[in-house]
């Protein structure tokens, strides 16, 4: 079960070696997994491929999706960091609950680490402006979806590591006094006012291991990159 599968490229890389009986791609982005599964299916005709559209913010509801066979939960991409720690723990607990009823199940998860601050800052405020464009796209999406009239050029990208909270924060900062129409409601933004768009929590290996234990996992292995930049855990 690939949690937050996206374009499924990571699964596509291990698929020839593991050849599971079933592959379940779970994501909020229905289009993305539909396209990815259509791309992969012809290469792996013996693998039953299932797309599951779900919003993790509503918990991990898998009734009718998992059968009695053991399941491996594959959660790469450090997306666990987008949950606040208490929510991350609850999410890990629900994964553990699904594993507990199926002997031989487990979790393989990638977690971003509390690396050098300059590296973290640069990763979320890159010179090419990729993250800035990603962040401003929130406003484009709101305009498209809800008919708001955000001027994308009116907001600067701010991405930085908040050491106290142990998280990257992304904000969009109004670069002038402006009024935005949220449908038929005017909303005044003062110059310098920020919209907090994203958090990405970082974990030292020991911190995340404690969280996995608190979630109910007893058998835990961890591999970390030099300097604990990121870690991969296997937990059962
Ligand atoms: C950082 S990407 C990781 C993609 C892929 N697993 C990888 O490692 O390359 C995060 C993925 O999680 C999905 N996602 C984000 N929020 C979600 C939510 N609330 N519920 C389900 N999926 C979500 C996104 O659509 C995206 O595909």
Detailed description of the structure:
The chain has helices at 9-18, 30-40, 85-100, 117-124, 130-146, 205-214, and strands at residues 2-3, 22-27, 48-53, 72-75, 106-112, 155-162, 167-174, 178-182, 185-189, 194-201, 220-224, 230-235. The model has no long low-confidence stretch (mean pLDDT 96). It is built from six helices and twelve strands. The strands form four sheets. The protein has a four-stranded mixed beta sheet with strand order 4-5-12-11, with helices on one face. A three-stranded parallel beta sheet has the order 1-2-3, with helices on one face. It folds into two domains: 2-114 and 202-235, Rossmann fold (3-Layer(aba) Sandwich); 117-201, no CATH class. The protein has 236 residues and is α/β, with parallel strands linked by helices.
Give the arrangement of secondary structure elements:
Blueprint: E1 2-3, H1 9-18, E2 22-27, H2 30-40, E3 48-53, E4 72-75, H3 85-100, E5 106-112, H4 117-124, H5 130-146, E6 155-162, E7 167-174, E8 178-182, E9 185-189, E10 194-201, H6 205-214, E11 220-224, E12 230-235
Parallel strand pairs: 1-2, 2-3, 4-5
Antiparallel strand pairs: 5-12, 6-7, 7-10, 8-9, 11-12
Bound molecules: S-adenosylmethionine (SAM).
In short:
This protein has 236 residues and is an alpha/beta fold. Helix content is 31%, strand content 30%.
């Amino acid at each position: 079960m690939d949690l937050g599968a996206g374009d499924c490229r990571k699964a596509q890389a291990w698929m020839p070696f593991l050849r599971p009986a079933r592959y379940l791609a779970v994501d909020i982005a229905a289009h993305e997994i539909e396209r990815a599964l259509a791309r992969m299916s012809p290469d792996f005709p013996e693998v039953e491929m299932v797309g599951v559209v779900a919003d993790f913010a509503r918990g991990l509801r898998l009734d009718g999706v998992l059968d009695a066979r053991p399941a491996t939960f594959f959660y790469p991409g450090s997306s666990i960091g987008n949950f606040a720690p208490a929510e991350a723990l609850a999410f890990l607990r629900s994964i553990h609950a699904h594993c507990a009823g199926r002997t031989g199940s487990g979790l393989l998860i990638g977690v971003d680490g509390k690396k050098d601050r300059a590296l973290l800052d640069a990763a979320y405020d890159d010179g090419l402006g990729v993250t800035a464009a990603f962040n401003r796209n929130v406003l484009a999406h709101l305009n498209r979806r809800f008919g708001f009239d955000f001027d994308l050029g009116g907001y600067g990208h701010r991405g930085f590591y908040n050491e106290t909270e142990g998280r990257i924060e992304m904000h969009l900062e109004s670069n002038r006094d402006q009024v935005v129409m949220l449908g038929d409601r005017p909303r005044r933004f003062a110059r310098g006012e920020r919209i907090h768009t994203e958090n990405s929590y970082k974990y030292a290996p020991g911190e995340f291991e404690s969280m996995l234990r608190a979630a109910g996992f007893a058998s835990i292995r961890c591999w970390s990159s030099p300097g604990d930049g990121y870690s991969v855990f296997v937990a059962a």
